Amino acid sequence: MHLRWIQLPFRPECGGFDEAPLVEVLREQSVLDAREYFFEHGGRPYLGCFVVLDGEARVPALATEPAPRPARAARARNPEAEPESEAEAAPALDATGLRAAAELRRWRSRRAKELGIPAYRLLPNRTLDALARMRPMTHATLLEVTGIGAARVSAHGDELLACLRSAEAGGLLDSLPLPTAAE
Question: Is the pTM of this model over 0.85?
Answer without folding.
Answer: no
